[in-house]
Amino acid sequence: MKQSAAWATDCKQRMMKTDTLSFRLFLFTSLWMLFSLGVVAILVSQDYRRTVEKQFEDLITANLYNLMGSIKSDEQGMLLGKPSLGDSRYQKYKSGWYWSVSSLPQGKIILSSTSLAGQDLPTAVDVKYDAEYQRSYRLNDNAGNTLMAVEAQVFLGEGDNIFVFRTTGNLAVLAEEISNFRQRLILLLGVFGVGLVLTSLAIVRFGLKPIRLATGQLAKIRDGKANQIEGKFPREIAPLIEETNALIKSNQSIVERSRTQVGNLAHSLKTPLSVLSMEVKNLPAPLAKIVQTQLTAMNTQVQTYLNRAMISARHGTITSRADVNQTLERLVRTFNKLFRNVSFKMTSSNDEQLIFAGEQQDFEEILGNILENAGKSASANVEITARQIDANPKKLIELTILDDGPGLSKSEISYVLKRGNRLDENNPGTGLGLSIVSDILREYKGDLQINTAQSGGLRVVITLPAA
Predict the structure, then answer these.
(1) 237 falls within a domain
(2) Sequence-distant contacts of 296-301: CB under 8 A, at least 24 apart
(3) Is 235 among the domain residues?
(4) Which of 315, 339, 357 is the last residue of a domain?
(5) Which of 16, 362, 403, 461 is most solvent-facing, going by the fewest CB within 10 Å?
(6) pLDDT of residue 445
(7) For 349-366, what is the mean pLDDT?
(8) Residue 336 belongs to what H/E stretch?
(9) 121 near 100, Cβ under 8 Å?
(10) Distance (Å, rounded) from C-alpha 315 to C-alpha 362?
(11) For the purposes of burial, counting CB atoms within 10 Å of the CB of 56, is it exposed (0-12), middle (13-18) or buried (19 or more)?
(12) pLDDT exceeds 50 at position 426
């Protein structure tokens, strides 16, 4: 029962999304089915009306023949007979069920049923007799009943006197019967229509199941849980799946090739620059200072653009994902060993899994540089908080790093954010850490904010795209 309820809820949620393929198929299929059922209901109803009207007319005609067979003419031309049509309605006053015999050309009624009781029923003057001198038409009696009449002209006896025999039936009976039939028909077709709509829903869901499976596989790829779409798919969408897998594989191949080329370039430039750095010592002092300055600038520029190239290459794949909590736990353990006098603590304000929509290496590069700076500045504690925030129409991961060090002024914060600048010249380094972090964040459309915490230390807030 729970599975059925969940399935129904899922169907309702999917069908409420009017921009989905499943909603369009379900809507147009259901509308066509309901339209077809409506046409069937109209056609069946009309056919049933024609059939019962024909049967009703046949009944009135049979009563007419029974009346004609029950009345005779004597030698003086008088009509004799006591018709018994076997229907008690011919005995009930103004029931709409009448019979009468009249003479021509006067049109005077000679014999009539008890139900007629002297009423003068109108005669159709615009309806012609057929080859057998019979005709049928509709009329209204004094009680407001709509009647069907069947009339015949007959010679009785050996004279030339013509008599008109007429029997009628109340069409209200026919209308009631047709109404009851329509109600039963609408009920049956309504139940059948609901069944068709539910069947249409099941067919649409079953038919689009491969697309949902492919969507689920793509979600796994986005989450970094798979490298390609796997499974057996119908022939119609199998080529699309194959092309998508080929595109993903080509993307990964391009990224790997870019990484290799960037690494080769870095290695090829490192040796010449190292040789030049060694030879600078043999140059005269003024020239050595100039060359050393330019070599430092070259190293900075080369490292900058190599980092950017590597970041762009890594960011180019759609399969890149990194688990935030796992990476933070690993980095915290590492920095607790590197900085024995500082305690690194991590907290996560979300119970859900936090996934960074990017490369694991880039995420480690960002956090590694920030935590290293925090470890150098902190007196005893560094706190790291990770949480997911909603920034419509996307979600972001917010990382906050607090240290209890002396902090920095606004001018000092601006100074260290510039490429190559360091406040502490006694420790080794190039001053490119925060600059590399900024480059990576810029590539991922993230953000870095550094300000003073309430405790007096630094408060660093990083925002990154969440998967």
Answers:
(1) no
(2) 298/273, 299/273, 299/430, 300/419, 300/420, 300/430, 300/432
(3) no
(4) 315
(5) 16
(6) 82
(7) 78
(8) helix 324-338
(9) yes
(10) 9
(11) middle
(12) no
